[in-house]
Specification:
The chain is α/β, with parallel strands linked by helices. About 45% of the residues lie in helices and about 15% in strands.
Length: about 375
């Protein structure tokens, strides 16, 4: 079988000339004039392309109340992707743990593990993945800080459900997450902690878990968080040494001007989100015609500076430099643009730039 199934479920395989394993973070973006159905079809196409070209993982992120993003239900999307792929690892990047009861997540990802044995990752975050009002609607409480503060306890409870090992006398000792170990020997998804600051970095290190950092929207915190993770790391039954991936916004096109034109759509979309005007991802024409105020231009320029974009060779150089600078063990690429065809083309161009195999199949 392919190493995605038989090998280390956490440490990926670098292919071609890539310095570290490459993976995909899919935000299931919905462009102006497109539908959620279109976006989900694109996700299947990206997963198939990623699988065939040797990308190691395809993760889906949980977001809510964002018209330009169709990934509010990662477990549902991952089940769909599992039905259309064979060996690429699939996972959440991530599920926002405070939004859900730990038992529900254990059941969902136990089901995914049963559907796609040996190739499911469970990435967990402590942020709501949305604004405060939506978070309150999800959690049925206005006390939002409570969920984030309780993250370590929620994580411990979730792990107990996944392993079916609450001690005797515990109120949940007779509760079983199914599908799960109570039904017989089975694998279980490895747990990753996700973060954009130091909290989860330290917790992942203390617990000896793999860590994924959101460089694509918190670049200024990347190196401090990775340093904190490595300094805090304690060997565990899961890992004997730190393993950190970073999410990277990256888009390759056939020429530099077109790449800039395409990434501007995601920058305008993020500007609108940050200023309380979320919507569908605008077209390149709309983004080019938009009249930015000086403050908006400053935001957009700063945002674009953190996107590795340009020709395939330029993107490869930018990714290589970022990996050397951060020491990341894996790069998880997210291509944010209006059109699904642009995103697909980007992943293919990057694969070509790193001489990834043209067809990876289980042996």
């Amino acid at each position: 079988m392919d190493d995605a199934i038989q090998g280390d479920p956490i440490r990926g395989t670098a292919r071609g000339t890539a310095p570290v394993p490459l993976s995909v973070l899919d935000l299931v973006t919905v462009g102006e004039g497109r539908t959620a159905s279109d976006a989900l079809r694109t996700s299947v196409q990206i997963a198939r392309l990623a699988e065939s070209r040797g990308y190691g993982r395809h993760w889906v992120a949980e977001h809510h109340s964002m018209p330009g993003v169709a990934s509010s239900s990662p477990a549902v999307i991952l089940a769909h992707l599992a039905a259309h792929t064979e060996h690429i690892r699939l996972g959440s990047g991530g599920v926002m743990l405070p939004n859900h009861a730990p038992l529900v997540i254990a059941e969902q990802f136990g089901t995914l593990e049963a559907l796609a044995p040996g190739r499911v990752d469970l990435g967990l975050g402590r942020a709501p993945g949305t604004d405060g009002a939506t978070a309150a609607a999800l959690r049925r409480t206005e006390r939002l800080g409570e969920g984030a503060d309780d993250f370590p306890q929620q994580l411990a409870e979730l792990t107990r459900f996944l392993d079916d090992d609450f001690p005797d006398g515990h109120p949940y000792s007779r509760i079983h997450a199914v599908p799960g170990p109570v039904q017989g020997p089975t694998g279980r998804p490895p747990v990753w902690l996700l973060g954009s600051s130091g909290f989860s970095a330290r917790l992942a290190g203390v617990l000896g878990l793999p860590f994924a950092f959101a460089h694509h929207f918190s670049a200024q915190n990347t190196i401090p968080a990775l340093d904190l993770y490595r300094e805090s790391f304690r060997p565990s039954a899961v890992l004997d040494a730190p393993y950190a991936l970073i999410g990277v916004a990256a888009l390759a096109a056939d020429d530099e001007k077109e790449a800039r034109r395409q990434v501007l759509t995601g920058a305008l979309s993020m500007l609108r989100l940050r200023t309380g005007r979320p919507g569908l991802v605008p077209t390149p024409e709309e983004a080019e015609a938009y009249q930015f105020s000086p403050m908006e231009r400053e935001f957009v320029d700063s945002w674009l500076n953190n996107i590795v974009h340009g020709t395939p060779d330029a993107v490869r150089t930018g990714l290589d430099d970022l990996q050397k600078r951060t020491g990341a063990d894996e790069l998880m690429l997210t291509a944010n643009a209006h059109g699904g065809d642009v995103r697909l083309r980007s992943y293919e161009l990057i694969a070509d730039a790193y001489e990834l195999p043209t067809s990876v199949v289980p042996s």
